[in-house]
Amino acid sequence: MTRPFPSLLFVLLPLGLLSSCAQFFVKEKTYLPTGSATVNGAEVASAVKGMGGKSGLSVSAMVYSAASGETDGPFLWRIEARGEEGVHESLTVHRLRVKTEKTGRNEPFPAKWLGTAAPFEPLKGKKNEGTTFAKFQLPGKLEVFPESDGRITLEADLTVRAGGRNERRQLTFVMEPSVGRKTENLFLPGEIIGSLGKEDPTEWQWNSAGSDRYGDRFWGDSRNFH
User: How many domains does the chain have?
Assistant: First the structure.
């Protein structure tokens, strides 16, 4: 399966050593979150990242590069939370379920892969000073598609630990399908390129997609998550 953004960046980074600007023309088929919830003082949300689609690249005089692409399902999926440094300790997901509007799927995620506490880690940069971030990214990829499945509802039973106290909540996240186009400019000065290898707690774990160490069965009998 083509991974649009990683493949584009992989191609662009060596060129970025010579070029000053890269421009992306992207057709997005994705899901937009409709809100977040506060649990034990942390802001908790659901997020997805498209893995399907196609991409292309063109370069002019090694000064300007342009990329075009399309993002679509399947998706990486995670529960994420923002907290306060020195206060928020961990995020633990106990139960998860996905429901689709058009295709009527209603599938729980097996509890045996859940229950691990994800620590809150400091975010980088002055604007994020004092803010921490925790994430639980599900193994494999979520086989939903905005145009065919329509709206998806994600139900999560989770706990946020802060200041030595646990708060457990059952949350519902509704994510609306969205199809649109966007243009993004990416400038790659040397200092940015030099920092690309540094770990960022908000980064997606691309190498976990499709991993078989969790078994080949995730989402009920339909096996829509693999």
Answer: 1
